[in-house]
Write a structure and sequence with these properties.
Distance between the termini: 31 Å
Radius of gyration: 18 Å
Shape: globular
Structural class: mainly alpha
Number of strands: 0
Strand content: under 5%
Helix content: over 70%
Number of helices: 10
Length: 214
Amino acid sequence: MISIKKLDNKIIAWVKITVFLLALIPLANLGISAYLDSLGANPIEKITRTTGYWALTFLLISLTITPLRRVSGWNWLMRLRRMLGLFVFFYASLHFLTYLVLDQFFDWASIVNDIVKRPYITVGFPAFILLVPLAITSNNRMIKLLGGKRWLLLHRLVYLCAVGGVVHYWWLVKKDLTNPLTFAVLLGLLLGIRLIYWLSGLNIPMIPRKGWLS
């Protein structure tokens, strides 16, 4: 009988393939909608908001890995974290490139003006930039090169990215705040759990585990 707490490598490989394919569904939906010309009256806004939504969604999912592992004892969840983290960067990059290429047409003066004058971009742009070193160093070679402590310290930037992403979304939405509020509550819960562990003296993983700190 298979124990969900201790999956063998073969099953974990299938789990990773399944998660990988599921993570591509939002992109596939966008592609199909574009092909059918059903992205709505403002296709650029639709693509921008969809990719941003899923970047933030995968970020919160990746932050859920560690507390879920602690509660469930499913240590194999840690083997999904790097892939989930890279999907955060993937969708965030699509979100940024949509703004850069389709919305602004590489108008750098307009982009700088947006960063200065629009608070949600002022917060969102650095949140995206902070994701870059996390993606670049999300491999075993960089862990070895940086050393465990420096790598862990660097990857704590993911918390700033998450807070910046939620604030970016909150300030972007002008009417229905349901989704931003949901993200904010979930992020507060996830950070609160980590704070409880820290205050109680329970250890947070001190060994890099092939992915973003969560």
